[in-house]
Amino acid sequence: MKTKLFFVAVVSLSSFSALSQSLKIGVKGGSTINKISGQTFNSQFTYGYHLGGFATIGLGNKFAIQPEVLFNQVNVDTSAQFSDIYKLNKLNGVQLKYITIPLLLNYKPSKILSFQVGPQFGILMNKTKTFVENGKDAFKSGDLSMLGGIQLSVSHLRLYARYAIGLSNINDINNKDKWTSQSIQAGVGITL
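Structure (tokenized):
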């Protein structure tokens, strides 16, 4: 009985030790260049920011899973057609605040370079309070995007750049115009 208990303890400690060597957590932040596509929005990109945390779980030498939780501020400008289509009083700019949850697969072809790809789930936390029609929110509360990018890892420092393309229509007013999001993120992360 003592031998079995000892064996279970050794296996448990070995598993925990292996997991702790392949698990890294950290913080990150940077700039975000945003755009919402649709005929009622300007086709230009605007600037915002993102802050949050991440974990990297190693799956061997070449692959890892990297879940993240980020706060994103998205600024977008409406076009001149917006007020005509939706009958709102000349609303020029909109500020949205999202909590985004990317779930990335990292492929590491070299010691410092990783390619990243995966889905991102966005939860709308706050929106411009005047941006409503008949009491109905203009933006849907969730957004699904696909991400792709690169990351450089040097010691505890991570530099990254990625592109996200929205897969879902975030227009919650009506189906006159399909709104999809696009963003480019660049930033710095530090593993703890």
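The first helix runs from residue 2 to 22. The radius of gyration is 21 Å.
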